[in-house]
Design brief:
Length: 155
């Protein structure tokens, strides 16, 4: 099974980084997130949630509460929470990620656009259609601006 192999490799990578760099290192938290993805994809949601929360706590300790590095784990927490029907937790996590992106990145940054898309999908899921529409419009506008910039750069 490919997931068993993925889990084996993710665990091994996490063990190696824990040994080499220690638990409180950015790369170690990335490995925690990676293993969390495997757990989430194989229905072991509690194990995934534990790893994501641990990684987020470490990142906040290393970089502070409003560092962009936290957003990867916040988005993972949001996705996992959506999968498990914990929509309030999902919304809280994506709102925190959006807040960080809004403060730290330019208004048309691709990561901010992706977070708006995620917020739109979540809002649609919980029947907040007006909010979903607002976030869809924001991300589409950002994607269009980004496309124009890329076309200009490539011309």
């Amino acid at each position: 099974d490919k997931y068993e192999l993925a889990e084996e490799y993710a665990k091994e990578a996490l063990d190696i980084y824990m040994e080499l760099l220690g638990e409180k290192h950015m790369t170690t938290t990335i490995m925690m997130d990676n293993l969390g993805v495997v757990y989430g994809n194989t229905g072991r949601y509690e194990k995934a949630a534990e790893l994501y929360e641990k990684a987020l706590d470490i990142r906040k300790e290393l970089y502070g509460k409003e560092h962009p590095e936290n957003t990867t784990t916040l988005q993972s927490i949001s996705i996992l929470s959506m999968q498990t029907g914990k929509n309030d937790k999902a919304e809280k996590a994506i709102d925190e990620a959006l807040s960080i992106f809004s403060k730290k990145y330019s208004e048309n940054h691709i990561d901010l656009a992706d977070a708006h898309s995620h917020k739109a999908n979540l809002s649609h899921l919980v029947n907040k259609t007006d909010l979903a529409e607002e976030h869809y419009k924001q991300c589409i506008s950002m994607y269009r601006i980004r496309k124009i910039v890329i076309v200009r750069l490539l011309s």
